[in-house]
Each structure stands twice: as C-alpha cells, then as structure tokens.
Amino acid sequence: LWMEIANDVAFSDKDVFAYNVAATHTLLTGDGPKTVYARFIDDAGNYSAIAAVSTTLDTSGPSGAALAIAEGAYTAGRGVNLELSAVGATEMWVDGDVEDTIYTKQWVSYATNLGVTLSTGDATKGVTVVYRDEADNEAGPVTATIVLDGTPPDVPQVSGPADHFETTSTQVPLAWIAANGADQYALQVAISDAFTTVLVQGTTTRTGQTVELSDGRYYWRVRAQDHAGNQSAWSSPVRWFKIDTTPPNTPQLTPFGSAPIGQARPSFGWSDESASGAVSYDLQISQDAGFPATATVYVHSGIAQTSYQLQNSDPALGDGGWYFRVRAVDQAGNQSGYQREPSGFTVDTAAPAKPVGLGISPGQLTNKNTIKLTWSDGPGNTDTAGFQVQVSETMDFAAQIVINKTTSDVFYDTTLSEGVYYLRVRAYDAAGNYSHWTWEPGDPAPLGFEIDNSSPNVPTAFAVVPNPSNTLKPPLHWSDERSSDSHSPLIYIVNVSTSSDFVPGNGVTVCVLVFNNGATSYTFANGEPTCAALPLGHLEDGDWYFRVRSKDQAGNPSEFSAPVSFTVDTVRPDVPSVFDVSPYRSKYRQPTLSWRPAAGAQTYHVQVGDGPGFFGLYLDQDRISDTSLVSNPLGEGHYYLRVKAVDAAGNESADWGIPLTPDFIIDLSPPGKATVLQVNGSNDVPYYTKDMTPAFSWNAG
User: Residue 256 and residue 107: Cα distance in Å, rounded?
Assistant: First the structure.
C-alpha cells in the first residue's frame, strides 16, 4: 500500500508515497554519482527488500565553447568549414545564415568540424552554435562571422607597352590600369600565348612591374584578385613584346639567272629573314658592282616584303647590265650587312614579231574536246623562246579560261568544255618580251570555234495511223526537235525492222534511213529501193517496228526513241454470206438484216438500195461490229440488200455479199373490209338458231 524512497540505505531522510509505479524524488545536492533506495510496505506493515538504483547528477553545461570559420574573414564560395569545440558536449545546434540541412537548425551529434552552406547573396554572414551535454545542459550560443563575396573584380586593362612592342633593352616595364574591386594582381610572362611555359609569375598590389629577360618574344597578361579570393579573367587580348639586341641575318638574293629581263622595272626578290628578326629591307640598284658613291645608285628603304617591283614612279632601267643588293632591318633598328657579292642581271625590252598563219583542227564546229591549234613564228624572229596561247569565251578575251605557254607551234587543249571559244597566240623571247597578239582590239574577228557536246532531244516516233495499215508504204512521222539544238538542220536516222531489238540476222530485216534535211516524215517511194534491206522499196505484210534519233551538225546523236510497233496487212477478208430477209414480204418497217461472220473481218458495211444497182440508198452504214443490224425505218416498197466485210487494216472483201433472195418487200397497205353475209346460210337479221356451232360466211375485202 505504501513505498519509501530515500538517499541513504538507513532511510533517515525519506519520502513516503502511496504505492505507484513512478514517483518524483529530490537527490542530494552537488554534482556527482548518486544512489536512491526504495522499499515497499503492505497493509500489515511488512517491508519489502530494499531496492537501489544509481545515477550521476550533472547540472553544469559544456565548457570552453568556441566557434571559428576555417576560411577566415572572406569567402568567395557559399560552402565553408566550421571549426567547433566545447568540453563535455555531446550535441550541438548550428544556426544563423546557413542553409537548412540534416546538420543545421536541429540537434546533431557533436563534431569538431562541419561543412555548411551559407545563405545566398553577398553580405556579412553570421553563424551560431549551441552545445549541450548528455544531461541536456547547454553552453552558448557562440557566433562567428564571415563576408560572402562571390563577385570577381574587374579585368585589369593593360596600358603598356604597346602590343608587338620591340626593344633593345632587356628590362621592360609592364603596366596596367587599377581594376575596380581588386586588392592585388597576378602577372604572368611566358614564351607562348598558351602560357604553358611561364617565366615570370607572381602577385603584387601595384599596377605595374618591370621584368628583366634575355632576347626573345614574350607574351604577358595580368588579372585582378580580391580578399575573398575571387579572380577576374586574364587581360585580353594577350600582348607580346620582343627583346632584340641581335641584328637580323643578311638576306640571300634571288638571282635573275642568265636570261635577260624584258622589263625596265623588274621585280627583285630575296630570302625571308623574319625568323632572325627582320621587319623591313633596304634595296640598292646600280650599274657598278662596287656601288661606289660616284655611280648612280637607286635606293629603296623600308620594304616590308621579300620582293619589290619597281613602280611607275621609279626610274626605268635602261637596257644593259645592272646589279642589286639588299640588307635586313629589324624592329629595333638593327641592320644586317649587304651581300659580299651583288646579283647581276641584264635588261632587254625589245619585243619579237607576232606569229602568223593561225589554223584550227578539227574545225570550227565540233563535238571533240581536243583542239589542235597551229601557227608559224613571226617573220624575222631569231630569239623566240616560246608562245603564249589564250582561249576565251568572249571575242574581246576579257574572260580567259586557258593561258598556256609552249615552245612548239602546235598546241593541244583537252580541258575545254562545251561552248563558243576564241583563240589567239603571241610569241615571247628569253627576256620575257611579248609580241603583239594575233588578234587585238581593232583587228577583224578572232579565230573562233564551238564545242558542242550536247545531243539534241530524243525525237518522238509517232504511232503509225492507221494501225494495222493496209498499204505496203505506210507514212512514218516523228517530232521536230530543232528547238533543242542551235545548229540546224538536224539529221534524223530512222530504223525500220521486223524485230523490236533492231538486230539484223536470222531473218530479221533492218532498214536504215538517213535524212540530212531535217525532214520529220517519210513515205516509202513507189517502186524505188530505199535501202538494201528493202529492194522492192516497200514493206511486206507482217509486224514492223520503227524508231528514230536525231543528230546535230556537230555530230552529237541523241538516243533512239522508244520503238513504235505497227502491222502491215493487205490481205482482204472473205465475202460475207448474207441471210435472206424474212419474211420476204413484211409489214414491219425495220426488218432485221443478218449475215454469217466472214473470215478476217472486224467490221461490216451494209447497204439497202432501191434496185440491184444500188443507185439509190436507203441504208448505208459501216463499222458494224456485229453480224446483224436492225434497219432504220423504211417506207413501203421494194428493196435490195448487200453486205461487205472490212478487216482491222481497212481492207474490204473482194465483193459484196448478196442473199440468195436479194430483195424484200415492205407492205404497209391493209386489205379491203370484209362483209358478213350469212349465218348458217341465212340472211335473216337477227337470226336465231339452236346450233351450237353456227357457220359464218362473208365476202372478201
């Protein structure tokens, strides 16, 4: 019924409670291990055995609570690492300007390091932490701050030296303009713009730095950085400078050779010494190999290329011997020496005479792409080195498509495509002096020719009409294809054969007809042979085929047309056997006319006339495909019938078919009225009789 709970086994200071399964008891003061004793009393006052339980009293929170952010005072990224410490802590609560995770803004197990994500937006961020121990005693909050700065500073602008700067000094000052948001600058100097090999690299709070380097080309760039570690992009474009204390190499001259030069203002050439630093060249020309001050010397300085063509503004060189020499100059002004031996050349500006006797083969209209051009050298020429040929699509030679040189007086060209072309030739000597062209403006029209590789259209072979044909000389027709070719008249080649493949032999007839005048039809000539295959000049009964193709004046043939088949049939059908009109005398105005089928017949021709001579016709109808016909309405009278057979080719039977009884009569007039006179021989009216079968008699009408 009762229970006692005490802090000592003697129960000297006890609490008495009515029996329950739980009770609240106050421990002795002071942190440390504690033991609690309990016993139970029944209604008779008997005590149970003593029960004991031990625990530790802890009323002090963790000590030495501290918080630090490993990244320091600034960070460019939102992810930071917390450094945490508290003696006796078993849990912690991280809060503040951090994102919600499973490790923040709730109690988690104590740890000395924890990565958190700061809230978005550049600003000063505060992070707090509270620690607690196993007894839920808390320590804190402890706060740490950090500046979140994710914005990089501006890209610094390079101010000097100028790009592609060259200097003879080994010390080069590099400078840039202060960038907004920058606390310091990183500088790189490398031997390539890829910056794979960096020779100078470092940081500075200044806006310039002098670098000392040996001869060479160097690339440099700079970028800004702030306290948070944000870096701008590298300055762009990358600049380079060059340190050059060595003069360039002496150029090697391009010799003119032994042949004279046909120009009073020739072009001079020399080797490219840019690899040794040359940026320009000085050219000197003189008629004295020693280039003395007393001789005339032409000087051209600051030439950027490795060649120089004397301009119209330069003095023309006279015919005779000359010398030239060249030196190189680099960007820093270092000069190479001149060549020990200048290069000599001879000027010759006298032109040869133009060629004569220009000719062309195979002709001025051809379907061949190989053209042969012939000519003779100009009169009096003794030093002709070769010839130049021009082929043009225009008479003024403004559009030249072939320019070639040959040392022969025969020129072949196999590269020309279809079109109209014009030709001209000129001679040249060893000095490069050219004669006049065989044609020049103001001359008569130049020699021209046309290459035509295009075939005319394939003609259409028209159907033979009628088909079958009842003539041995049927007309053949095909389409006119003049509009498909600019060269008329077209030639037409017609094949007529008993085989659709037009291959002669084995009894196959093939006739070839050629029409050079552009004709588009043909009828076999009466009694005249048209080809060896048709000695009688006409076709025979049977199946035939014909096809046609065109050919232009350049010799380009088209393909053959699709073959057209037709039949020649001159055999007459049999004479039809005609039935008598029945009845011979009839009151019907449209009697049925009929006959037996005739061998070979396709249709029939029927006539009904007024007499055996059929001079007057009451019915004249052909193309009847049946063997009977209901006549058109006829009047009363005497008529004659005849029928002729017609086959598919239009051949008629040799004669008319006539019925055994060739005529018939249409009788539309009724007889006179009959008059009843007697009944059983009596004239009585009325007449009475008991005879069930009376006899009637009358007079005919």
Answer: 94
Decide if 245 contacts 215 (C-beta within 8 A): yes
Report how far residue 314's alpha carbon sits from residue 296's, in angstroms, rounded to the nearest whole number.
14
pTM above 0.70, yes or no: no
Report the pLDDT averaged over residues 34-62: 90
Give the tens place of pLDDT for each residue, 170-203.
999 999 999 999 999 999 999 999 999 999 999 9
131 beta partners: 92, 139
Question: Cα separations (Å) of 422 from 151, 305, 661?
Answer: 73, 38, 88
Output b/e per residue, 278-305; b: 16+ Cβ within 10 A.
bbbbbbbbbeeeebeeeeeeeebeebee
pLDDT at 526: 56
Residue 412 has pLDDT above 70, yes or no: no
CB 247 within 8 A of CB 319: no
Show the 3-state SS of 534-581.
Answer: ECCCCCCCEEEEEEEEEECCCCCECCCCCCEEEEECCCCCCCCCECCC
Write the pLDDT tens digit of every residue in 443-494.
Answer: 988 888 888 888 899 999 999 998 999 888 888 899 998 888 877 788 888 8
- Nearest Cα neighbor of 661 from 590, 605, 600, 583 is 583
Say which amino acid occupies 648. Answer: A
The token duo for 546 is 């014909």
Compute the distance between CA of residue 651 and CA of residue 673 in angstroms, rounded to an integer: 54
Q: How far apart are CA 448 and CA 530, in angstroms?
A: 39
CB of 511 closer than 8 Å to CB of 496: yes
C-beta of residue 235 within 8 angstroms of C-beta of residue 158: yes
Quote the mean pLDDT of the chain: 89
Phi-psi region of 600 (alpha: psi -120 to 50; beta: other; left: phi over 0): left
d(CA 110, CA 94): 10
pLDDT of residue 701: 61
Q: How far apart are CA 423 and CA 394, in angstroms?
A: 10
Provide the 8-state DSSP code for 457.
Answer: P
Residue reference for tokens 């069930």: 692
Give residue 530's pLDDT band: very low, low, confident or very high (50, 70, 90).
Answer: low
Residues 6+ apart with CB under 8 A from 415: 369, 402
Give the residue from 253, 417, 245 showing the smallest Cα distance to 330: 245
DSSP-based three-state secondary structure for 229: coil
Contacts 24+ apart (CB under 8 A), 213-218: 213/170, 213/172, 213/189, 213/243, 214/170, 214/243, 215/170, 215/243, 215/244, 215/245, 215/246, 216/191, 216/242, 216/243, 217/191, 217/241, 217/242, 218/172, 218/189, 218/190, 218/191, 218/242, 218/243
Q: Which residues make Cβ contacts (< 8 Å) with residue 579, sequence separation at least 6?
A: 594, 595, 596, 659
In this predicted structure, the answer to whether residue 529 has a pLDDT above a threshold of 50 is no
Q: Say how far apart CA 590 and CA 587 lie, in whole Å.
A: 9
By CB neighbour count within 10 A (0-12 exposed, 13-18 middle, 19+ buried), where does 129 fall? buried
Mean pLDDT of 385-395: 87
